[in-house]
Amino acid sequence: METTLVLIKPGGVQRNLIGEITRRIELRGLKITGLKLIRADRKTVEEHYAEHRERPFFGDVCDYLTSGPIVALAISGPNAVRAIRMMMGATNPVEAEPGTVRGDMALSIDDNLVHSSSDPEAAAIEIGLWFPEGTVN
Ligand code: CMP
């Protein structure tokens, strides 16, 4: 059993895609064990993207994630980290397979709709960051 983090980014919330994205996750058989609609603060976002601090897009991606409401989801199930990564599709939506969230609903890497944890270690850190109060079983 694993738990992973999904963020529905401001563009996804604005486009009313919360239901479609959570529907796909639930249909797959994964459980939502944390769920909140929030305005993320800059400090949390910068910590979340700490591994990208030196990349040229760091400032823009932090600006974007704080530009509007987002949904933070904790998702639990067998192989949840990899299952979610596959369902979300490649980071760059033009390379994402049809049938994935990004492959079906996004076109631009700057607004690729969702973030999902890259591996179990990152997932544990990100769940701790976005759900310091803990998840619900
Ligand atoms: P995400 O999975 O949230 O992790 C970092 C984000 O930075 C990524 O999705 C993209 O939305 C954004 N980004 C912008 N440019 C790049 C890039 N060249 N490589 C990776 N991520 C990028």
Question: What distinguishing features does this structure have?
Answer:
7 helices, 137 residues, alpha+beta, binds adenosine-3',5'-cyclic-monophosphate, four-stranded antiparallel beta sheet
Overall mean confidence score, pLDDT: 98
Low-confidence parts lasting 5 or more residues at pLDDT below 50? none
- Ligands and ions found: adenosine-3',5'-cyclic-monophosphate
Main pleated sheet = 4 strands, antiparallel
Structural class comes to: alpha+beta
Number of strands: 4
Q: What is the count of helical runs?
A: 7
The ordered H/E elements are: EHHEHHEHHEH
**Percent range of helical residues:** 40-55%
Termini, distance in Å?
A: 12 Å
Strand percent estimate: 15-25%
Short description:
With 137 residues, the chain is an alpha+beta fold. The protein has helices at residues 10-14, 18-27, 42-48, 58-65, 80-88, 101-105, 120-130, and strands spanning 2-8, 31-38, 70-77, 114-116.
